[in-house]
Amino acid sequence: MNVLFSANSTYTDIVTSVFSSTIAAKAWFASAAVFFGIIQVSTGARIYGKLQRVIRLSPSVVAPIHRWSGRLALLCVLPVAFHCIFILGFRTTDARVLIHSIVGSFVFGVIVVKLFMVHSRKYPGWALPLAGGTLFAVLVTLWATSAGWYFTSVRFGF
């Protein structure tokens, strides 16, 4: 338990050197993850031949953007997940928090499924976009029930 307390204390010290609170950091990291998620959905659609008039880049240019935006989104959700799992935990105080806790319990499972599907050719062509869209929907739901609520109900700022 001392190790967890030490990690929590170190995390709080690092985060509050930039942000006003750990909750503010969580909200901004979650917002960055959703921003990269929008890039993921857009570039993924372009890779699948959609949005050609909107994203006027070749698939060979879009593919690395897609990969790197996914990596950056994953990096952004790691401190959020640490905060949610080890500091806040699973809560049921109201409907918003309950929905956030339940959906948050599935987010890394959805990430793993999508990553396995990317590296496999045995799934039908519609499965990977479905997995990516599901992951984006999960991220947006988590954002709306945490960062969106924080920015509109508590404070919009660092």
Give a written overview of the molecule.
The chain has one domain. The protein is 76% helix and 0% strand. It has six helices and no strands. The chain has helices at residues 2-15, 22-47, 59-88, 95-118, 127-144, 147-154.
Give keywords.
globular, 158 residues, single chain, mainly alpha
Write a brief caption for the model:
This protein has 158 residues and is mostly helical. The chain has helices at residues 2-15, 22-47, 59-88, 95-118, 127-144, 147-154.
Main sheet? none
Measured distance between first and last alpha carbons: 30 Å
Q: What is the averaged pLDDT score?
A: 89
Structurally, how many domains make up the residues?
1
Structural class: mainly alpha
Oligomer: single chain
- Helices and strands, in order, run as HHHHHH
Describe the secondary-structure layout.
Layout: H1 2-15, H2 22-47, H3 59-88, H4 95-118, H5 127-144, H6 147-154
Helix pairs in contact: 2-3, 2-5, 2-6, 4-5
